[in-house]
Design goal:
The chain has 53 residues and is an all-beta fold. It has strands at 4-6, 15-25, 31-41, 50-52. Helices cover 0% and strands 53% of the residues. The strands form two sheets. Strands 1-4 form a two-stranded antiparallel ribbon. Strands 2-3 form a two-stranded antiparallel ribbon. Bound molecules: zinc ion (ZN).
Length: 53
């Protein structure tokens, strides 16, 4: 029988850090790259921190 194991993607942390890059225009009209970091539920385990088998 399969047993739940610590999710290798998030290490059991249930969330993973995602980084989204966007290009925005600053006050001088120059385009600058910005990165947005945010946490979202792990896609591998669905936010449970465990995977089966
Ligand atoms: Zn996970």
């Amino acid at each position: 029988m399969a047993e739940p194991q610590l999710c290798p993607a998030c290490g059991g942390g249930r969330v993973t850090e995602k980084i989204e890059y966007t290009v925005e225009t600053d006050s001088r009209g120059d385009q600058v790259a910005r990165e947005h970091r945010y946490l979202s539920p792990c896609g591998r385990c669905g936010g449970t921190g465990e995977v089966w088998g």
